[in-house]
Amino acid sequence: MARILLTGGRGVVGIPLGEELARRGHQIHIADLGHSPLPNYTRCDVGEYRQLERVIKEYKFDYVYHLAGEFGRMNGEHYYESMWRTNAVGTKNLLKLQEQHRFRAIYFSSTEIYVAYTELMSEDVPDRVPLKQMNDYAISKWVNELQILNSTARDGVESVRVRLFNTYGPGETYSSYRSVICRFAYCALHDMPYTVFENHHRSFTYIDDCARALSNIVDYFYPGEVYNISGEEYWSIKQLSDAILQAAEKDDRHVQYEKVERLNTLNKKGCTKKSIAHLKHEIRVPLSQGIPKTVAWMKKFYDK
Q1: How many CB atoms lie within 10 A of CB 254?
Q2: What is d(CA 31, CA 24) in angstroms, rounded to the nearest whole number?
Q3: Residue 111 CB contacts under 8 Å (≥ 6 apart), including other chains
Q4: How open is the CA angle 206-169-17, to the nearest 5 degrees?
Q5: Alpha carbons 73 and 67: distance in angstroms, whole number
Q6: What does the pLDDT look like over 248-299, one tens digit per residue?
Q7: 61 by DSSP, 3-state: which?
Q8: Cα torsion angle, 208, 210, 213, 217, sign
Q9: Residues with Cβ within 8 Å of residue 257, at least 6 apart in sequence
Q10: What pTM, to 2 d.p., does this model score?
Q11: Dihedral (C-alpha) 105, 108, 113, 117: value to the nearest 10 degrees?
């Protein structure tokens, strides 16, 4: 079994991913912000090279899942200093250590890099189509992919990139910068207003399906590859809101409807052919099940 580090391992994706990898017998170590009494945990800010170096040198990992990062479009606009330091400098720090210690790494990108591309989003789109990212968060994720590609070409590091499509599920607590399902569910349960942009459509991925596919990368590691991790259902944001309201047993009196959100991608439909073929990605939880599970967890967590 492998020795695996998860940077950002206490996050929404990191926790279930770590649990899945541990169930498979791997030795898991977590690096994240803040202190913890756990024996397999080290406090570490990936934007600080020395802190990350200490973890890598001490434990000598076979694989690193680099989940640590600032998440979200508006978060990247409002807190761009932290976002650039964590996302771009943090990734560069890990790449420099990977070049020295030769562990394999899985780097987390975003569907935001596809920007306004209107057709099925396959992994080769950026190689075929000139894309101009529309916000700092998207730009930082594309910068990271370019850093990884350069390090691979120059120093021969063995890396895989993943682009997650709207991962959702139990465990994501609310802030105004979180994912759309989390925000809608929290607002619905608390009778708070939120805006639905009716003409936007998205692919979504339930957290357990996502964690299982990500865990499979260790078993099916293809250096240099990039994968979309996505569900296959493709819903409008209006459909999504309606399903959340139904699960929360609420009506739409607090919902404001608009057609389009300015400077946001209209449609995101992910192609999963490669992740299914290479990683045995399997979609087990449809939105009709995942949304009620998510709302039920949030009801319990917030005592609603």
Answers
A1: 14
A2: 20
A3: 121, 163, 164, 165, 166, 228, 265, 268, 270
A4: 70
A5: 17
A6: 999 999 999 999 988 788 899 999 999 999 999 999 999 999 999 999 999 9
A7: coil
A8: negative
A9: 195, 196, 198, 238
A10: 0.96
A11: 100
